[in-house]
Amino acid sequence: MSIYISGSLAIDRIMPFPGRFQDHILSDKIHILNVCFLVDGMEERFGGTAGNIAYNLALLGEKPTVLSCVGKDFDRYERRMAELELPMDGVRVIDNDFTASAFITTDQSDNQITAFNPAAMRNPCEYDVSAIDPKDSLAIVSPGNVEDMIELPRKYRAAGIPYIFDPGQQITALSGEQLEDALTGAAILTTNDYELEMVMKATNMDKAQLLEKVGAIVTTLGEHGSSVLRSGEAVEIPICPATPVADPTGAGDAYRAGMLYGLSLGRDLPEACKLGAVCSAYCVERNGTQEHSFTLEEFTSRYEATFGPM
């Protein structure tokens, strides 16, 4: 089965500050804030929702197509995707702009100041979905360009392509009407528990009403696992234990990759979500969203140690 992932491709530039922000910010001068933090180096990591999902699927042996926009500085990320044998035909290059990037400064108390430049992500991917075989494909609309998040669900519905809607951090960029339109007809609406509350508030719908629009609701619950809600059925999915828990960033994207992998194999949704739980466990054990790795044999062994025979 072919998998299509729309969303962001981004570069995270992480800069540790060897001090505490609170020692350099005067509370009575916030209205005229002007500070400079001398950081202790910079680490560059590949990220973005679509990039993270695709990375995890590549570890599972899949070659999904990423639908996204990047800029003139994408060469290193492109080489990484080539090493993972990920197709590039869905990646649109904007020659006069930069790839989306986050500049993250973290102090010794783990407080963060982040500046995010969407840059090329302001442009839609313009992928021709008519090239997708609806009988042997699955798509996910993850956070990225807002126009893509509005238009791709419409195109997928018109073409009969099953899709997962994952609005994530772009929920506030969409109106209630746009959210309702995008999720209507989705095979799955997937969020974390806080995001689900935001979707319900924006659309003025409860879970029962959402289930009239989507096939299922999958909600990640952090250390409490995840849940699958379908008409007349609710299933709780436990976590796959992670040792240690180093960084939860990217765990949701890893979970979605495992879920997509399971669905592409024809697994029932709760079973697919268990695969997502295992994938996310690998992610949280390392700092960064694409710093972990595993073989398919290791993944299978860990799944069976947690959930039993696959």
Automatic annotation (TrEMBL):
<dbReference type="InterPro" id="IPR029056">
    <property type="entry name" value="Ribokinase-like"/>
</dbReference>
<protein>
    <submittedName>
        <fullName>Adenosine kinase</fullName>
    </submittedName>
</protein>
<feature type="domain" description="Carbohydrate kinase PfkB">
    <location>
        <begin position="39"/>
        <end position="291"/>
    </location>
</feature>
<dbReference type="GO" id="GO:0016301">
    <property type="term" value="F:kinase activity"/>
</dbReference>
<dbReference type="Pfam" id="PF00294">
    <property type="entry name" value="PfkB"/>
</dbReference>
<keyword id="KW-0418">Kinase</keyword>
<keyword id="KW-0808">Transferase</keyword>
<dbReference type="InterPro" id="IPR011611">
    <property type="entry name" value="PfkB_dom"/>
</dbReference>
<dbReference type="InterPro" id="IPR002173">
    <property type="entry name" value="Carboh/pur_kinase_PfkB_CS"/>
</dbReference>
